[in-house]
Amino acid sequence: MNINDSLLSSREKAIFALRQVFQQFEYHPYPKLRWEDYDFYVKHKAFLQNTPILSFHDYDGRLLALRPDVTLSLVRRYQANGLIQKWCYEETVYRVPEGAHGFQEMRQMGIECLGPLTEKEEVELIYMAGDSLRVLSEAFLLDISHTSLLPGLLISLRIPDQVQALFMNAFQKRNLAEILSLSQKYDLNAQNVEIALQLIGHYGSLAEGLARLQHLPANPLLMQAIKHLVPLAETIQTQNPALIKHLRLDSSMAPNIGYYRGLILRGYLPNAKGAILNGGRYDPLLEKLEKPDAGFGFAMTLPDYDEEETFQ
Amino acid sequence: MTTWLNIALPKGRLGEQAMALFVEAGYGIPALQENDRRLILENPEEKIRYFWVKPIDVPIYVARGAADLGIAGRDVILEQACEVYEMLNLKFGMCRMVLAAKKGWSDQGTRILRIATKYPRITTKYFADQHRQVDIISLNGSIELAPVVGLADAIVDLVETGGTLRANGLEEIETIEQISARLIVNPIAFRYQGERIQKIREQVQEIEKIQQKG
């Protein structure tokens, strides 16, 4: 069947382009999911960052929920077979976005890679995230971080335990005024605070960010992040130099360490409302669901398109 | 080609002080007149556009990307809880958000407190952190009146000198937050117009420091 391109809306073209990227990396479509038990999401509310869950009763009285997330459902159904399993999906999720006054239906496309993963698959994940964003806009940006980075940065600053949460919050919100004021109040080393402010206040290249990190006093968590990200950046620089200019180090990224461990990603497009790609390595999620192996993936929420374009 | 940078300013004294700071930093408006009633002002040379909006709405304009930058009081930033980056303390519009009640009143901790405020979110969080249940009464003005006429046990409101509290027989019980004007930035603008925003931030900070010394 030949389809005339002019019949496709921008959204539909984006969906087809993303399917093509997923296929190029040999990801297979996951069968359509149905709803889940409400209890399942309640048990893993922390993974969902405490997002409200839209529930309903089935005719037999069971309390079910409309899916707020796809990863949980896929990992729940994961059957290890000693091989790497690569899945892609297109699903509708129901969430209350930041600042909204009710649930919204969101179309998500994404991938999950599960199994005995190696560094090769992790690098491939970044390439794939880059290619997926590129089909939507050449001006994409991909922020990279590590779950140990922000906690390690806070240790480097020798922040007293009782105010760790205050600092963590200020870093996540890039609240430079608050970081400076708290640093003075708790008499932190001015030179280290200046490096931290540079990391948070500037949005330079991945190499610049990694170089700044190395000026901070070392500690095991910070070194774990540096030792993971530096070789990764070098590999990308060698293998995929066209991608490197789109990569940034985001030292403010909030690690949901109960469920994620290792690399974390966020993708941006100009004029989008926020990050349109979110992902990372979630081995602790597999542990919680009593599954072997490792896993990572990303989900993309397509940006708003002018629906009037449809069928023009 | 440089794109326009949109800045949301709060109507009123805070916005006027912020505008004066931008003018001093070299981002003024050509042919700006006294009592200019235009809601959108442009500097075509620098490609900067200012909007005058209701103070409480500034974080919404910025978070939703209608404005790339904004000037907002820390009180409205906390109350709106939008996703914006708070990148500079401008150190004007300084005051405190306090819990206040009628002189001599004491909280016995035996019943649900009735708290009148214009800031329900901040008030809820403040009492939730203390594991206290409260009945929040949202008002839009004359908050100090609420304990006097028996509408509330206490209030959460902004205080500059404490004169209005004293004039109405109230006293401050606790400071909840130090408030001042902040420069806020949209997360996408931070990524795509970072260098320009950085330059403006540094210039404004420089002027603010000179003014503080003066």
What is the structure about, briefly put?
By secondary structure, chain A is an alpha+beta fold.
Looking across the biggest beta sheet of chain B, what order are the strands in? Answer: 2-3-1-4-11-5
Structural class of chain B: alpha/beta
Greatest chain-chain interface?
A-B, 22 and 22 residues
- Could you tell me the radius of gyration of chain A in angstroms? 21 Å
Please provide the count of β strands of chain B: 11
Tell me the series of helices and strands of chain B, N- to C-terminal. Answer: EHEEHEHEEEHEHEHEEHH
Helix content of chain A: 25-40%
CATH architecture of the largest domain in chain B: 3-Layer(aba) Sandwich
User: Which CATH first-tier class of the largest domain in chain B would you pick?
Assistant: Alpha Beta
Question: What does it look like?
Answer:
The complex is a heterodimer of chains A (312) and B (214). By secondary structure, chain A is an alpha+beta fold. Helices cover 38% and strands 20% of the residues of chain A. Chain A has 12 helices and 11 strands. In chain A, strand 3 (54-57) and strand 4 form a beta hairpin. In chain A, helix 5 packs across helix 10 and helix 7 runs antiparallel to helix 8. The two termini of chain A are 20 Å apart. By secondary structure, chain B is α/β, with parallel strands linked by helices. Chain B has 2 domains: 5-93 and 180-213, Periplasmic binding protein-like II (D-Maltodextrin-Binding Protein, domain 2, 3-Layer(aba) Sandwich), CATH 3.40.190.10; 95-178, Periplasmic binding protein-like II (D-Maltodextrin-Binding Protein, domain 2), CATH 3.40.190.10. Chain B is 33% helix and 30% strand. Chain B is built from 8 helices and 11 strands. Chain B has a 6-stranded mixed sheet with strand order 2-3-1-4-11-5. Chain B has a 5-stranded mixed sheet with strand order 8-7-9-6-10. The A-B interface holds A 98-99, 139, 141, 173-178, 180-181, 201-203, 248, 268, 270-274 and B 60, 63-65, 81-89, 182, 185, 187-188, 190-192, 194, 198.
